Amino acid sequence: MARPLRIQYPGAVYRVTCRGNERKAIFRDDADRKKMLQILAASIKNYTVKLYSYVLMKNHFHLLLETPLGNLSEFMRHFNITYTGSFNRRHGRVGHLYQGRYKSILGDKASYLTILSRYIHLNPVRTRAMAKGPLRDRLTYLTRYPWSSLPGYLTGSKREPYIRLCNGS
Length: 169
What we know:
This protein is α+β, with helices and mostly antiparallel strands and 169 residues long. It has six helices and four strands. The chain has a domain at 12-123: Alpha-Beta Plaits (2-Layer Sandwich). The protein has a four-stranded antiparallel sheet, sandwiched between helices.
């Protein structure tokens, strides 16, 4: 059965997710996460993509991005292949890192950009371990979670230069 075609057009906004093969970790330590963000920043620049928010979890990641050139497939192909190669070399492994293709959900920029960003930023407290904890503990954990674009939304000095805020800045 053929794969369905992806909807791509200039200015499209997507929530993109990619999960580790067999739900295994795609980040073993902070060095892996830092490398992922370096590759993400370079890919954003090379493919003229706008990144509004992200979160890196142990076995998956979420991105909220816009493709002014309508080139999501090319961007994700380069980004995922580059990170997989780096991860495999560093950890002495071969083969697939991700479970199938990345998932992309098309969103309306005017209506859902802030909602999708909030969904992505709340991901660290939606884990089983955090879901039943006190609200204060979840809020503290969320604001201190280092592998998300949320700190840059809360404190401008912590915003990475490749992040575009949902309000357009």
